[in-house]
Amino acid sequence: MKESFNLDALLRDNIKKLVPYSSARDEFKGEASVLLDANENAFGSPYSKNYNRYPDPLQHHLKEKLYQIKGIPAEHTFLGNGSDEAIDILFRAFCEPGRDNVILVPPTYGMYEVSANINNVAYKKVNLTASYQLDLDGIAAAIDAYTKLIFICSPNNPTGNSINRHDIETILVNFDGIVVIDEAYINFSKQPSFAQALHEFPNMVVLQTLSKAWGLAALRLGMAFASKEIITVFNKIKPPYNINQATQEIVLEALSGIEQVNGWIKNIVVERDELSALLAELPQVEHVTPSDANFILVKLQEPRSLYNYLVGRGIIVRDRSKVELCEGCLRFTIGTPDENALIYQSVCEFYNNID
Q1: What are the structural domains of the chain?
Q2: Could you tell me which residues come within 8 angstroms of residue 220 by beta carbon, excluding any fewer than 6 positions away?
Q3: pTM
Q4: How high is the pLDDT of residue 33?
Q5: What are the tens digits of pLDDT across the range 207-241?
Q6: What is the pLDDT of residues 114-150, one digit of tens each?
Q7: CA 319 to each of CA 288, 308, 311, 323: distance values in angstroms, whole numbers, following the listed order
Q8: How far apart are alpha carbons 138 and 76 in whole angstroms?
Q9: Which secondary-structure segment (H or E) carries 266?
Q10: How far is CA 311 from CA 269, 317, 336, 346, in A?
């Protein structure tokens, strides 16, 4: 458990002074029959359902439903237009452009670096070890007085493995800045979520998403879990109506399908392990990284040629062969049983053709 943490010392001065936009729905509480405060079209929408009214800016009903599933109260929850919105807000809240820096641990999710560049924030790369774990000594050496954020993806993308929990806790306890733990793939892992330990680490932000296990990628809904104080900062910075009404309604209905989602997760894990075992038996496959995600990273011979061969057959995978520590690797998302069978068959055919 972290003994002391000064959030105010990390915030940018302009964010401390920021007076957030106060929307009509923020100012009004309760029920009303006549709404003439927000310059909406009172006649309705040219659609079978009316979307002429602005949505709930803080998504109260949605957060209450998520609380029933995850056990995390609404005041500890931020909902964003994908996890990318939460990532961007972290930079805008805590990193002074041209002065502060963040630490990334490649190979990792590429949006951290993109967001740093967009916000003109320097980043220091401390590569994972050969076994795709944190280099604690390297991270400690990289931290300076202007390091505000450390991003850790676990299970990691693109490698698929979980990061050692004790190592993450070591950073949480010893780093005075914000530690961001991206758990986009946590549903496929046996590891417990760090979101259940918010009370222990006031400097922690946990990112999750409904794009993967929940199958709602097109709706773009991401979640950030953190202390009440950090969530207050997020809500201060976000656009007033960042989650549209249609998304809120569809997600609220979809969250009732937890049994179906749990069934999908079990099937994906079984398919993942079966495809991993099949590919590992091929002589041209050098290594399949054990995965806690819904994808596998496979090191194999002629990766670029295989990639092009698959594209030619209308099969799109991710070429990671030029990423540091992922040399020679392709990343395969786990699909349906038929899709996974087609991947395996296609890989075998490719190698048979070049032998």
Answers
A1: 7-256 (3.40.640.10), 259-354 (3.90.1150.10)
A2: 81, 82, 211, 247
A3: 0.95
A4: 79
A5: 999 999 999 999 999 999 999 999 999 999 999 99
A6: 999 999 999 999 999 999 999 999 999 999 999 999 9
A7: 15, 10, 11, 9
A8: 31
A9: helix 258-280
A10: 25, 8, 18, 11
Distance CA 250, CA 59 (A): 13
Distance CA 289, CA 132 (A): 10
Tell me if residue 301 falls in helix, strand or coil: coil
Q: Does the pLDDT of residue 22 top 90, yes or no?
A: no
- How many CA atoms, within 13 angstroms, populate the side-chain half-sphere of residue 18? 18
DSSP 325: T
Q: Choose among 157, 151, 113: nearest CA to 329.
A: 157
DSSP structure class, residue 64: H
In which band, very low, low, confident or very high, does the pLDDT at 303 lie, cut at 50, 70 and 90? very high
- Residues facing residue 124 across a β-bridge: 103
